[in-house]
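User: Design a sequence. Structure:
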């Protein structure tokens, strides 16, 4: 580093003249004063100090500056920054034979021989940028902002990229700083600015688990940039050899959402792989396949049905559940007015489950026409039912009857769970000789609970053709937070159609309101086809979260059950002592390992001491299977589970290039944009760039605090000296 140092003045003729006059007058005045003192030595020193102070002030009046100029001895640097993000693997650079990847098109740029014409004058440095981390996007701002600090003696930047940035501040902000430092950007855009013909399988949303010999619905989404619709035969395979195919009409220039049904025949962990066959016109075939994990289990759900009298709805519901091989049903009949509860089969119990241990075994509880009257439920039992739903993720089904006993439940803690508001002026509900019918809402048409046929059109026809009901509960309107799946086809009030089938989420569990007692009539002409299917779906839907992952003393469930990338996941756990009692206080941790191997520990906090409930939160930063190890220090118990994060990485293949980003960077920094096959234009432009200006350090002596301090100091010495010699 060569350095040159000099002292300069920002003087003007009048400032020099004024300075000379003042100094001359000061010298004359000092000589006269010294003569009057008899040429005493002490007086002479004081006057000499006076003249020195005035000369110093006159010099400062002409604004002196100390300038140091540093010129680097090494050659200037040109930084060639090339985009290494995953989007550069998109195959859309049209070659003579076939499209090639954007990264392959940059190979001439990264060849040192291509820069031989300027290497005698400058150092050419190659640096990959915008490398996307696991689950993150690419950042073009950071490498541009750090370039002047990272590369010494930088005179220019060559940026080769598709312009597809999706992390960090806008790169033009860094370009504005480079403009101030005199560093131009030469952009080399690669990739097609319009999307080439392509069909992409965007998502495969498999549920966490399925039940053996039960059909599993697996939604998927396809995105097409082809100009016309076409019919494709999708295939979904497992590693065991099972294959499901489905014909789908893929919409042109848009997205197509559909689902396949798969009926697993064996228990185990599977990986489902779906493939969209290659279209003759598409240029990208790397994104036509996706995989997702699913666990197939043997099902045994425990259900409790509580009723007062054995009405028809209860009888057929009990039959439907007891004949379901995946359900273990237990019934409690109070028979108000009789001395003993009813029922004599083995699936009947004589009293409501006592304590948390017995009640916590049930995945779903049905409450029929029961209440607090006639020695039926107690307020304490209602409180436990609320806790079962809120903290243990169990389901609760309200099935009111014409005796209106459920009105008394609204005076207990169960009122918080009720999905609808009841009309207390019509406790017995409404009945008629003419059958009434359900009408599905928009939510109901999409819900799995109301899916009685394979297609949406057929499902609507099935519901319209179901035998009607002749009694319905006095529901006025749905409460806030509830979702109405079906309403009365004809009856309305000031709030609109009367809700007859409504659901809501409360705490970790789900609640369902069934506003009629005529579902048993659905068996007319078709036997158990729709009746059994509906209640089977209800039980499984309500028990789904509770059975995501469970061991002997621990249970783990989460919401949402199909989380998206960067969506906050609520993790709930139930931890029991070895004796079966809920753990009131404890240290519960979950170690979550992402697909990239990155591990994170989530510490749970107690959300219900009485129920052994603990809760934590986690935000997934990348898609794929996340392995979870739940542990408790107090019980030494562990539970292994996994969840699958839906979505694709922020950096995706197939997106159009954004050359306008590089054009803006070049315009802001006064650079240029050239095609990758016109590298000679960039080399010629770099060859004409001037050497970087020297680094200059300026010290303004006239307003420097040290100089000002010295002047004040000597002024003080001057006045003290005058006092010593007796002039003051």
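Assistant: Done.
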């Amino acid at each position: 580093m060569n350095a040159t140092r000099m002292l300069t003045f920002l003087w003007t003729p009048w400032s020099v003249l004024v300075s000379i006059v003042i100094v001359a007058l000061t010298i004359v005045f000092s000589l006269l004063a010294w003569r009057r003192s008899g040429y005493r030595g002490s007086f002479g020193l004081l006057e000499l100090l006076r003249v020195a102070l005035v000369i110093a002030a006159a010099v400062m009046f002409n604004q002196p500056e100390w300038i140091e100029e540093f010129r680097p001895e090494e050659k200037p640097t040109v930084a060639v920054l090339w985009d290494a993000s995953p989007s550069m693997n998109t195959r859309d650079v049209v070659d003579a034979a076939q499209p090639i990847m954007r990264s392959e098109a940059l190979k001439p740029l990264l060849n040192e021989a291509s820069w031989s014409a300027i290497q005698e004058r400058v150092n050419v440095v190659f640096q990959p940028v915008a490398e996307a981390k696991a689950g993150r996007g690419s950042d073009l701002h950071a490498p541009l902002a750090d370039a002047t600090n990272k590369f010494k003696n930088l005179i220019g930047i060559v940026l080769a990229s598709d312009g597809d940035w999706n992390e960090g501040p806008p790169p033009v902000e860094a370009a504005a700083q480079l403009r101030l430092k005199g560093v131009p950007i030469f952009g080399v855009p690669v990739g097609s600015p319009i999307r080439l013909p392509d069909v992409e399988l965007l998502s495969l949303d498999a549920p966490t688990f399925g039940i053996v010999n039960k059909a599993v619905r697996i939604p998927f989404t396809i995105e097409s940039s082809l100009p016309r619709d076409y019919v494709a035969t999708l295939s979904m395979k497992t590693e065991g050899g099972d294959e499901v195919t489905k014909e789908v009409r893929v919409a042109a220039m848009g997205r197509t959402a559909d689902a396949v049904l798969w009926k697993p025949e064996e228990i185990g962990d599977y990986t489902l792989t779906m493939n969209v066959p290659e279209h003759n016109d598409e240029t990208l075939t790397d994104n036509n396949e996706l995989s997702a994990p699913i666990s197939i289990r043997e099902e045994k759900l425990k259900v409790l049905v509580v009723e007062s009298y054995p009405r028809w709805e209860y009888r057929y519901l009990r039959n439907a559940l007891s004949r379901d091989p995946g359900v273990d049903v237990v019934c409690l009949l109070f028979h108000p007015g009789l001395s003993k509860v009813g029922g004599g089969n083995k699936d009947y119990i004589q009293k409501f489950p006592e304590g948390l241990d017995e009640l916590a075994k049930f995945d779903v509880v049905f409450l029929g026409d029961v209440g607090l009257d006639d020695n039926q439920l107690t307020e304490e039992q209602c409180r436990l039912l609320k806790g079962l739903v809120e903290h243990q993720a169990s389901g609760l089904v309200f099935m009111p009857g014409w005796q209106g006993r459920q009105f008394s439940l609204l005076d207990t803690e169960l009122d918080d769970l009720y999905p609808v508001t009841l009309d207390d002026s019509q406790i017995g509900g409404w009945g008629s000789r003419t059958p009434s019918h359900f009408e599905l809402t928009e939510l109901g048409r999409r819900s799995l609970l109301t899916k009685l046929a394979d297609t949406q059109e057929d499902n609507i026809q099935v519901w319209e053709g179901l035998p009607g009901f002749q009694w319905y509960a006095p529901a006025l309107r749905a409460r806030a937070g509830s979702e109405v799946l079906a309403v009365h086809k004809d009856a309305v009030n000031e709030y609109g159609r009367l809700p007859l089938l409504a659901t809501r989420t409360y705490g970790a569990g789900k609640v369902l309101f069934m506003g009629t007692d005529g579902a048993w009539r659905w068996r007319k002409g078709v036997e158990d086809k729709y009746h059994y299917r509906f209640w089977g779906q209800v039980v499984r839907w309500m028990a789904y979260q509770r059975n995501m992952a469970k061991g002997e003393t621990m249970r783990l469930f989460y919401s949402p059950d199909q989380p998206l990338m960067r969506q906050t996941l609520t993790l709930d756990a139930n931890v029991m002592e070895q004796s079966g009692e809920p753990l009131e206080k404890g240290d519960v941790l979950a170690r979550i390992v992402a697909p990239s191997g990155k591990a994170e520990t989530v510490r749970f906090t107690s959300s219900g001491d009485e129920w052994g409930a603990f809760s934590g939160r986690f935000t997934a930063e990348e898609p794929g299977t996340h392995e979870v190890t739940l542990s408790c220090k107090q019980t030494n118990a562990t539970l292994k589970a996994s969840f699958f994060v839906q979505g694709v990485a922020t950096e995706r293949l197939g997106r159009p290039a954004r050359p306008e980003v590089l054009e803006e960077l070049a315009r802001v920094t006064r650079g240029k944009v050239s095609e990758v096959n016109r590298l000679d234009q960039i080399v010629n432009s770099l060859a004409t760039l001037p050497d970087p200006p020297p680094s200059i350090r300026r010290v303004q002596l006239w307003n420097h605090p040290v100089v000002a301090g010295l002047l004040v100091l000597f002024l003080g010495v001057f006045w003290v000296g005058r006092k010593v010699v007796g002039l003051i």
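The chain has a mean pLDDT of 84. The longest helix spans residues 13-36.
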